[in-house]
Amino acid sequence: HYDTVSSAIDEKLSQMSNSRTGDSSSQPGLENAPEFIPTTKSTEIINKLMERLEKPLYDDGIDSRQILRKNKETYASVLRTKIDEPNVDNLVKAGSDEAGTAKATFLCLVRNEDLDGIIKSIQTLQETFNNEFNYPYTFLNDDEFTEEFKKGILNALPAKASVRFGKIEDSDWEMPAWIDIGDYQKKMEALDEQGVGHAKQLSYHNMCRYYSKNFHHHPMLRDYKFAWRVEPGVSFYCQIDYDVFKFMEMNNKVYGFTLNLYDNPLTVETLWPTVMEFVREHPDYLHENGAFEWLKENGQKPDNYNGANGYSTCHFWTNFEITNLDFLRSQLYQDYVDFLDQRGGFYYERWGDAPVRSIALALFADKDSIHWFRDIGYSHMPYTNCPKRDEEKYRAQCVPGKFVPWGNLEAENCQATWIKYVMSEDQMDLY
Ligand code: GDP
Ligand code: MN
Predict the structure, then answer these.
(1) To test the ligand 1 pocket, which listed residue (110, 141, 412) has its Cβ within 8 A of the most ligand atoms?
(2) Confidence class of residue 5 from pLDDT cuts 50, 70 and 90?
(3) Strand order in 235-236's β-sheet?
(4) CA-CA distance, 396 to 388, in Å (whole number)?
(5) For a surface tag, which of 13, 259, 356, 369 has the fewest beta carbons within 10 Å of its beta carbon?
(6) Nearest CA owner, ligand 1 atom 2
(7) What is the pLDDT of residues 303-353, one digit of tens each?
(8) Which residue out of 111, 122, 210 has the highest number of ligand 1 atoms within 8 Å of its CB and is therefore the one to mutate?
(9) How many A from CA of 419 to the centre of ligand 1?
(10) Which of 142, 168, 204, 378 to mutate to test the pocket of ligand 1 (most atoms within 8 A of CB)?
(11) How large is the greatest C-alpha to C-alpha distance in the chain, in angstroms?
């Protein structure tokens, strides 16, 4: 039996290498989907928007401990309410004709040595969702994937699974030539001494820049509208019986997330001032229904807001993200990320793709098009999104409402600010 399976896999692999020649490296043109073309705004409107971006959410004299206490209650009360599927009348259920028909893929950027970790992730993803929907997987790497890696993946997935393995162009991945290496090293030496993780790891900086600026232009993603990012070592806990990608598409969602948190302000000291420079150059790019309050929150962790020079550091935890790639491929997003890239903060600081992406979404997208998948039980160490589900039906294995095993990290959760200041009643009523 093993021989038949392995020769089937060998055949699948050889077909893959034959079909690879079509994947040339040329970047597709920007698509500019109409929903992401900014509207021209009056000076009055622009002034109002800028004012909201310049002042903190809370006035002086805040009691951050009290805010944290209330925020924890808000968070717990939402996740301890029973959560089923989104309350829309157009869910595409497993088994229906339309199930699995969105132009969508799972996206795993991994190294060969991440094999065991990514297998663990895709196993629970398959069990809780994709066995019913059979969406394809796209694996990307800055190095060539080994035969062992490819076979390992194909072995872990059902025979019907569609899988592609791609290499990232060096020019899209490596530190750009205009970064001063001496300056980079000096600055990362200093960040490292202050205890900032990954500061001296060049590949980590490359990864953050790649996820911010380039992944959505990879030729293997050209024909997709949505990508669901999956990382090694994560778990999915709850059964999802509807097509998540079709939900995004049919309800005009730009972004789906499960967790949102504070970042280490030392990694993004100049990110917010740099973004504000960009915004002053392109004020029309701002969305009138943006999630500004979430960016300007200064109550729960005021030191973060101050350390990041006017930014809460709240960000979607991008190790889980479902992105509408048309947003990332729009002129607007590309201008934004090119501007940031030119300033060098992916190397002279340690800007993460998470704050970079999150700020763009909160400023330039309609907040109602950003969806919190409360119903997807998910964890990446050490944080978890665990909803209260119908136990018999869904067999949730996590503890509803438990965000993190260690109490001192409770303060890292930004979700209550999202709930209180960003979510409209319609969004609250979705579950
Ligand atoms: P963390 O979650 O912030 O600690 O970062 P991870 O180490 O999980 O990296 C984020 C994602 O990028 C994961 O999917 C990694 O597998 C991937 N990744 C990180 N560094 C590299 C790299 O140098 N090469 C490749 N191909 N993938 C990487
Ligand atoms: Mn990770």
Answers:
(1) 110
(2) low
(3) 235-236, 378-380, 383-385
(4) 8
(5) 13
(6) 319
(7) 999 999 999 999 999 999 999 999 999 999 999 999 999 999 999 999 999
(8) 111
(9) 29
(10) 204
(11) 71
Shortest-distance atom of ligand 1 to CA 230: 14
Q: CA dist 194 to 190, 198, 270, 312, Å? A: 7, 12, 17, 20
pLDDT band at 21 (very low <50, low <70, confident <90, very high): very low
CA-to-CA distance for 399 and 294, rounded, in angstroms? 26
Question: Comparing C-alpha atoms, which of 209, 234, 419 is closest to residue 314?
Answer: 419
Q: Is 132 a catalytic residue?
A: no
**Pocket (CB within 6 angstroms of ligand 1):** 109-111, 114, 141-142, 203-204, 207, 231-232, 319
Query: Stretch 201-229: mean pLDDT, rounded?
Result: 98
Distances (CA, A) of 218 to 26, 124, 166, 250, 376: 9, 26, 9, 25, 27
Relative to the CA of 233, which ligand 1 atom is closest?
A: 8
Cβ neighbourhood burial of 316 (10 Å; 0-12, 13-18, 19+): buried
* Confidence at residue 42, expressed as pLDDT on a 0 to 100 scale: 97
In angstroms, the Cα distances linking 67 to 56, 232, 304, 420 are 15, 34, 15, 12
Nearest CA to ligand 1 atom 17: 110
Both structure tokens of 161 = 């699974």
CA distance 31 to 325: 10
Ligand 2 centroid to Cα of residue 240, in Å, is 23
Q: Which of 297, 321, 349, 412 is catalytic?
A: 321
pTM: 0.95
Strands 321-324 and 235-236, sheet pairing: unpaired
Q: Tell me: the pLDDT tens digits for 253-291?
A: 999 999 999 999 999 999 999 999 999 999 999 999 999
